[in-house]
Amino acid sequence: MSNAVSTPDRTWLKPALLGVGLLTLYRVLALHWGQLDLFVDETQYWFWGQELAFGYYSKPPMIGWVIRAFVEVGGSDAAFWVRLPAPLFHAATAVILGAIAREHIGHRAAIATALGYVTMPVITVGSTLVSTDTIMFPFLALALGGYLRLAITPSRNLALFTGAMLGLAFMSKYAAIYYVLCAGLVALALPLERLRSRDYGLILLAFLIAISPNVLWNVANGFSTLQHTMDNADWVRDPSKRAGLNITGLTEFFALQFVVMGPVLFSALLLMGWQAIRGQLTLIQVTLLLFALPIIGIVCLQALLSEAYANWAAAGTIAGVVAVMSWLIERPKWMRISFWINGTISVLLPLLTLFAGSLSFGGDRLLFERYVGLDEMSEEIFTIARDTGQKDIVAFNRDLLANLFYTAKGRDFTIYAGPFEGRAPHHYALKHAFDGMAETVLFIEKEGRSPPCPSDTAIEIESPNGSYQDRVYIAYVLDGACLK
Question: From the CB of residue 484, how many other CB atoms can be counted at a distance below 10 Å?
Answer without folding.
Answer: 11
